[in-house]
Amino acid sequence: MKRSLSFLLFAFVSIFVGGIGADAQVGTSLDIDMKKVGAPIQGTMYGIFIEDINYAADGGLYAEMIKNRSFEFPSHLQGWKAAGRFELRDDGPFERNPHYLRLYYPGHPHKHTALENEGFFGIGLKKGARYTFSVWARLPEGDSEATLTVEFVDPRSMQEGQATSTGKIRVNSREWKKYEVQMTSTVTDPKATVRIFLDSPVTVDVEHVSLFPVDTWKGRKGGLRSDLAQALYDLHPGLFRFPGGCIVEGADLGSRYQWKNSVGPVENRPLNENRWEYTFKHRFYPDYFQSYGLGFYEYFLLSEDIGAEPLPVLSCGLACQFQNDDPKAHCSLEDLEPFIQDALDLIDFANADPATNKWARLRSEMGHPAPFNLKYLAIGNEQWDEIYPQHLIPFITAIRGAHPEIKLVGTSGPNSEGAQFDYLWPRMTELGADLVDEHFYRPEKWFLSQGARYDTYDRKGPKVFAGEYACHGEGKKWNHFEASLLEAAFMTGLERNADVVHMATYAPLFAHVEGWQWRPDLIWFDNLRSVRSCSWYVQNLYSTYKGTNVLTTLTPEGKPLCGAEGQGGLFASSVLDSAKGEVYVKIANTSAQERPVEFSFKGLSGKAVLSGVKVISYSSPDPDADNTLDEPGKIVPVSSPLSWGGSSTFCATVPAATFQVYVFSCK
After folding, report:
1. Of 289, 299, 431, 601, which one has the fewest beta carbons inside 10 Å?
2. pLDDT tens by residue, 78-103
3. Angle 121-124-129 (CA atoms, 0-180°, nearest 5)?
């Protein structure tokens, strides 16, 4: 094929400068078809997935700062220190959280009854920030008033006193009431504690002790941690999968995530054992429970806030198969009805009319009369073997019968290939699943070999949901730039195949630096700060420059640029944004040498002129490095203007180990 003189000269110079060797690249050309606009890119294409692992919810996105706020942990004072005279009781005002503490006068003016809470790896306070402390309390013996003194405490302080801020609550009723006080922190302290003194010679009952920053996401009381929610919003996700993951299954069925327990007043949402509580002996967190304060209502609300389609995942009646070999650990087919009803009721909770449905009425009472417009529902997480289709069939029958408008997501199991994968995909097709959830946590070689993964998928079968994926480096299972580069390369294959791939979500989403059990993760945080990983920036670039339609992008030999042999470690895809009149070309160079590439735009119509706007480059001098809490902007994309126009060909040099997005205007 005849190529432009400028490109030939460009390639020659590249060889001359770079030297000729086994890895030398004469040049790569890409033909981008502007005439034949390809498959639409779904709004759900790039999304997010949350699971309460690594303290992602309690101790993370959910902004509650008190651990074991209702004394419902199996060890009822876990997270607390208690002094003086007190008694644990279990006839409290909240049916599903019955425990509370009765605080007594210690009987001596120089003795004190007090409580102290350690929070999640400490309580993070910012100087000048305001916090709302609340407690349900009563005077059980009919006294007229009692004072509770609330303190923010620095237990390491060398000052005369440990308290850094103080507030007062006047308890004045024999009946249970909620009391609040706002306190302003006078210090920045990531490891504070909260201390409560009984400062009256009377008896006081306390329940559901809580502390939230006033500055929550969108200012909602009892809401989400602002910086973490903002990091989700800034990803521009089109999809939000929740609440898991393995916690949907539970280590046993009794500890599975049950959505009905996660709605209604937070004071009456029962505690749940977290699937990740003590799974790993090498990273052991025996105080890791789910308060359900971040429940399905909050997940739906967050989906709406960030503009993402909600995708709830529900149990199919199978406990985690990794943890259960005994068939008796799972729900029998004869006893599946409550699980199926949970799915039907969830659709009603999300979409039904409050005037005619009790679950929709609960949604309305919680503050959202309008429907959430649920369109997708996943049944099961990483199940496998024939037991999964057997359990799935009754769900499909019931949901299709009652709600044919809902698209159902099945699973291909926990592996990206192999016997389980090969068995489940045909079964999902036979059963009529709308999408199939694929998971792959794989090393570098796998990601480098999968650029053409979806090129040969059946175009008439279920669509693909790449529901959990991340590059886990061989011997480098932590966040680092090289892993994010390989994810970027792999994602060109998702984009090129947007006719069959409709959803993709990296996993896991969050990790507390002192409480993680799984890495890499998209966003890391401590009690005061958060950092967006290199992988976060790759996801952001894809969602920001998602476009509306795929553009066919092939080499002169008619092949996609997908990291195949002889392609010099290059991966590429192109999309049109018809709304903006722009073209986005994404290209990843995974090799150790810069690569010359010519973009040849074919079929420009009429008087259309293609001109350069900018190029965004993402690279790092250290492939093993990542952004950190101390250096959150260490490795970020760099945007440069692109002065070019009036021609149908554009020559570029893609630096070694770099991901680039080229933005062109087509008007």
Report:
1. 431
2. 999 999 999 999 999 999 999 999 99
3. 165
pLDDT tens figures, 333-358: 999 999 999 999 999 999 999 999 99
CA distance 351 to 376: 12
**Residue 98 to residue 207: CA distance in whole angstroms:** 9
342 neighbors 256 (Cβ within 8 angstroms)? no
- Whether the CB-CB separation of 193 and 118 falls below 8 Å is answered with yes
Give residues with Cβ within 8 angstroms of 356, minimum separation 6.
none
Phi, psi of 16 (to 5 degrees): -60, -40
Per the listing, tokens 């990601």 go with: 447
Strand 146-153, strand 123-125: pairing: unpaired
Q: Which of 72, 382, 482, 495 is catalytic?
A: 382
For residue 51, indicate whether it is catalytic: no
Count the alpha carbons within 13 Å of 299 in the hemisphere toward its beta carbon: 29
Q: Tens digit of pLDDT for each residue in 529-576? A: 999 999 999 999 999 999 999 999 999 999 999 999 999 999 999 999
Give the dihedral sign, CA 376/296/287/185: positive
**pLDDT score recorded for residue 607:** 74
Residue 593, token pair as written in the block: 């040498």
d(CA 98, CA 93): 7
Instruction: Give the CA radius of gyration of the chain.
Output: 28
Q: What is the DSSP letter of 278?
A: S
Confidence band for 24, pLDDT divided at 50, 70 and 90: very low
CB 167 within 8 A of CB 182: yes
* Whether the model pTM is above 0.85: yes
> How far apart, in Å, are the Cα atoms of 626 and each of 222, 623, 631?
32, 8, 9
Alpha carbon separation from 448 to 412, 445, 482, 575, 613 (Å, rounded): 22, 5, 12, 22, 30
pLDDT at 5 over 70: no
**Average pLDDT across the chain, whole number:** 94
Average pLDDT (227-237) is: 98
* Dist. CA 658–CA 582, nearest whole Å: 22
- Tokens matching residue 561: 């640029």
Question: What is the dihedral angle through the alpha carbons of 49, 223, 99, 252, rounded to the nearest 10 degrees?
Answer: 0
* 154-160 CB contacts, 8 Å cutoff, 24+ apart: 154/187, 154/189, 154/192, 155/193, 156/191
| Burial of 418 per CB tally in 10 Å (0-12, 13-18, 19+) | exposed
Can you tell me whether residue 405 is helix, strand or coil?
coil
First-to-last CA distance in the chain? 28
pLDDT of the residue at 27:
67
Residue 217 three-state SS = helix
User: Strand 658-666 vs strand 582-589: parallel, antiparallel, or unpaired?
Assistant: antiparallel
